[in-house]
Amino acid sequence: MTKPNTGELDPQDNAASEVRSYAIGFIVSLLLTVGAFAAVLADLPSTWAIICICIAALLQIITHLRNFLHLSFSGGQSREDLLLVLFSVSLLAIMAGGTWYIMSDLGGRMHDGGEAGHAAHAMPDR
Amino acid sequence: MSNNSNLYPGLNLGDGHGEAHEQAESTVFGFWVFLMSDLIIFGILFASYASYLDPVGMAGGPGPQDLFDIKSVAIQTGFLLLGGVAYGGVSLAMKYEHGRARVIGWLLVCAALGAGFLFFEVKDFITQAGKGGTPQVSGWLSSYWTLVGLHGVHVFSGILWILAMVAQIAIRGLDEVLKVRLSMLGVFWHFLDLVWVGIFSFVFLVPLA
Amino acid sequence: MSGQTSPIFGNLNWNVTPYTDLLRDVNSSTIVGAGAASVLVLGAIAGVAFLTYMRWWGPLYRNWLTSPDAKKIGVMYIVLALVMLARGIIEGFVIRAHQATALGTLTAQESGLVAPDHFAQLFSTHGTIMIFFVAMPLLIGLINFVLPQQLGARDMAFPVLNQVSLGLTAAGAALVMVSLLIGKFGTGGWTMYPPYTGKIFSPGEGVDYWLWAILISGMGSTLTGMNFAVTIFKERAPGMHMMRMPLFCWTSLCVAIMLIYAMPALTVSSLMLVLDRYADFHFFTNASGGNMMNYANIFWMFGHPEVYILILPAFGVFSEISSTFSGKRLYGYTSLVIASMSIAVISFTVWLHHFFTMGQSAGVNIAFGIATMIIGIPTGVKIYDWMATMWRGRVRITAPIVYLTGFFLLFVIGGLSGIILANPSIDYQVHNSTFLVAHFHNVIIPGVLYGMLAGIHYWFPKAFGFRLCETWGRRTALLFVGGFIFTFMPLYVLGLMGMPRRSPTFQNPDYMPWMYIAAVGAVLMLCALASLFWTFWTSYRNRLSLAVPGGDPWNGSTLEWSSPAPVPEWSFPRIPQVTARDDWGEAKRAGDPWKAPERYCDIEMPANTAHGLLIAAAATGLGFAMVWHIWWLAILSFLAIPGLIALRGLRVIEPKIITAAEVEEADQRFRQQVASLAPATRADEETERNRGVPDISEFAG
């Protein structure tokens, strides 16, 4: 664990930049949240709305990691933290993606008699 | 971010805090590892929620359109986001030694905002149960209650943890050990925000879109 | 357990013990059940009486149960595992004995030693115990003991948390043990697939015992994984780069990663089943939109990495012993590191091969089948590396090497049968047959069991100061090899003949010759178990002639062999400065490895605490209360856990200080002893001349 040489930073200067970091994080998160909700409330086609929500969520997660959890994305930090997050995300993608892949395939074969049946049976209770 | 001696996730105490900063390196890193494990739990629940989100999974019970109140979700999101930012107050007050009272004050603000979030969440749950949306009705509702409920339980334990920290600070004073614990709590509190971003986006908004 | 729930005793009543069954109907099945319960009760009474007679309660509490020392925690894990191993092997024997008598006829279909329901409990507990309470504690224990010493660390990163993990594992084991006496265990196999294990088909406490044992011990394992990972990343001795770590540390890191990311899946699947059973949720029910296939999906997301959690530490052990007992450097260090890490990552992408026949389309099966075959490649690389390590070495046929040879021969067969099963179309033919049973025993026994027993034999002197008897060690190893061959090779044949696994009875007389052979094998396994315990006992009796105070009985090359045996609590008088891979071997090559440090300083060790013990008690109470629906106790125990943590948080905890003078005294005594002992050559390794100081002129590796 080599610690990078920080040099002498003026603590007050540092504090101001940290407050700014939280403020930026808050404003960006707020805007992204409002955007996501607006996408639902506006009369967008649902595919577009879902794409907007996903992008907003992704950006907001990055903002949180960066501004609130202070995970730096450009060296500086001991790299283990970032690697850990990336590794976790990739395993999560394997697990969640795999689950979705397997279960939707099974669901398709169990309930609807094939891919084509899926649309025909949509929302029978409504 | 000009401070480039970040050793662990969350706002670092910095070299000025000597031993606590070093101890925090392994402790907060360990806690972050644990949260990654927690993240997998949420991830699998998200995937299950998605796989139950179809007419078969809803089994003729009420669906997202019938149950979700987008306004309340927005209020909850606001509470949690503000709560997350408020923890920045705790971290900064601790790092720049603004004194015990400031730290405790910010902690209580966090706890209050968390409690506000929980109030609206529980209110939603009660309304949904009233509309026939109990978890016993369908696979989809089971997964919805489990996923969102588990996050709620996390927030609740976060509040308990905050209160425990307030008690500890009051009794022990803000010593090195507590600084490390507060750093851990901060990582936890921000992590809950992160999960909530996933929840409001994929649990609430996507089915409504 | 119908009837109403009492507010005080929950569903408990006098009819839940196996003795009631025995009184109701005396037959071989109830006699076996009551016998097992009696062994448990008498064993517990004998244990308590023995401890009281020897006045060992105090030392046990002070030196072991409250110790946060990773080495002691490791030993306790292994003791727990060996106790559970005894039960698991005996159950395996009863399973074999039952099937050897289970040939029914078309008119009288049911036959055999135990009743079908009892048989189902046997294979369920056997699997649960062997995976969760034998294999896991064995490997976690071994890692706990070895890892900090190999890394040159004082202790784990979080010693008290380590104690809590041990407590949670022990709590889970206790629940499984209690199910022998109070109530019944589940009958759904070690995987407990719903909907069979849902409330409708399996009312009663059986599945709940499994669920709570798994949830509680699983929590412990997650925390352990986190502890290992942080220890490896943050607590290495100065100079110990990642690529200087001994291979056992690398495999421990893989285990840690897999524990961290795989255990949550088990937690989720068990938690969902708990909600289904206790709160009428519909995750896995047949009705109301539940989907039981999701259980298999989530469970095996844990289950497959788990297989590699089990096997990788054994690979680490084999890497160490193949090098040490051949007197050579490990061949292909980098390739072994890469292979281990690839296994750890690829193991997350193959889980579907456990349910090829569940009904997904061919494309999905093929994707996972290919991933499964790919994971065979790094494993193959490792086998070649170990063989190349031994090639032209001066191999001493010690007990670990007997295990290693048995592993070479048998594990390859098991691995190849796995590659066969990885082909979905073949899997459709042999799935759910005893072919599969033979396959996974064929990888787990030669892999995990041999590896862990070899590791115990190898590191035993470090923990207790004397070697294990080589003669009995080799006999044990050979009995385990022979027992394995006789027990499980017939199951391959039976599987290809079409015999389903877990059959309580069958009507095909052609199975019988193979059944008898397997039963003979089970007898050999029992002998191996007895021989294992005899090895410990006879070595203990001859501990003076087997003593190795010099601490390096095998002429090893990793850091842990530099300290005395038994190793002191602080492991190293000063944290070593590492300059090379296999630093101790490097010091030997440079001459005079036993140099005293220039000066000594105070050592801070974590203070003893009963925290882990109390949490374990609360967790056991919680599990038991939930199984029997004793709500007040459940609430009380549940609140006790955060309460205990909060109380500990309020106190300022001072570490235990070991003064420099004390360390210096002990260390100087050790150095003088080493100087006074005659170095033993490798030829003398098994004789009394081996006092733990090797002839370093012989050190080539």
UniProtKB/TrEMBL annotation, chain A:
Its main location: membrane. The keyword Transmembrane helix applies. Keywords: Cell membrane, Membrane, Transmembrane, Transmembrane helix. It is found in: Cell membrane. Pfam families: COX4_pro (PF03626). GO terms for cellular component: cytochrome o ubiquinol oxidase complex; plasma membrane. Signal peptide: none annotated. The chain crosses the membrane at residues 21-42, 48-69, 81-103. GO terms for molecular function: cytochrome bo3 ubiquinol oxidase activity; proton transmembrane transporter activity. It is a multi-pass membrane protein. The keyword Kinase does not apply. GO terms for biological process: aerobic electron transport chain; electron transport coupled proton transport. It comes from the Bacteria. Belongs to the cytochrome c oxidase bacterial subunit 4 family. Heterooctamer of two A chains, two B chains, two C chains and two D chains. Cytochrome bo(3) ubiquinol terminal oxidase is the component of the aerobic respiratory chain of E.coli that predominates when cells are grown at high aeration. Has proton pump activity across the membrane in addition to electron transfer, pumping 2 protons/electron. This is Cytochrome bo(3) ubiquinol oxidase subunit 4. It comes from Aurantiacibacter rhizosphaerae.
TrEMBL record, chain B:
One of its GO terms (molecular function) is cytochrome-c oxidase activity. Pfam families: COX3. Signal peptide: none annotated. This is Cytochrome bo(3) ubiquinol oxidase subunit 3. Heterooctamer of two A chains, two B chains, two C chains and two D chains. One of its GO terms (cellular component) is plasma membrane. It comes from Aurantiacibacter rhizosphaerae. Residues 29-208 form the Heme-copper oxidase subunit III family profile domain. Belongs to the cytochrome c oxidase subunit 3 family. Keywords: Cell membrane, Membrane, Transmembrane, Transmembrane helix. Cytochrome bo(3) ubiquinol terminal oxidase is the component of the aerobic respiratory chain of E.coli that predominates when cells are grown at high aeration. Has proton pump activity across the membrane in addition to electron transfer, pumping 2 protons/electron. SUPFAM superfamilies: Cytochrome c oxidase subunit III-like. Coiled coil: none annotated. The chain crosses the membrane at residues 29-53, 73-94, 103-122, 142-166, 187-208. It is a multi-pass membrane protein. It is found in: Cell membrane.
From TrEMBL, chain C:
GO terms for molecular function: cytochrome bo3 ubiquinol oxidase activity; cytochrome-c oxidase activity; heme binding; metal ion binding. The chain crosses the membrane at residues 31-53, 74-95, 129-148, 160-182, 209-233, 245-275, 295-318, 330-356, 362-381, 401-423, 443-460, 472-494, 514-537, 605-624. Residues 50-579 form the Cytochrome oxidase subunit I profile domain. Residues 682-692 have a biased composition (Basic and acidic residues). Pfam families: COX1. Gene3D superfamilies: Cytochrome c oxidase-like, subunit I domain (1.20.210.10). It comes from the Bacteria. The keyword Transmembrane applies. One of its GO terms (biological process) is electron transport coupled proton transport. One of its GO terms (cellular component) is plasma membrane. Belongs to the heme-copper respiratory oxidase family. This is Cytochrome ubiquinol oxidase subunit I.
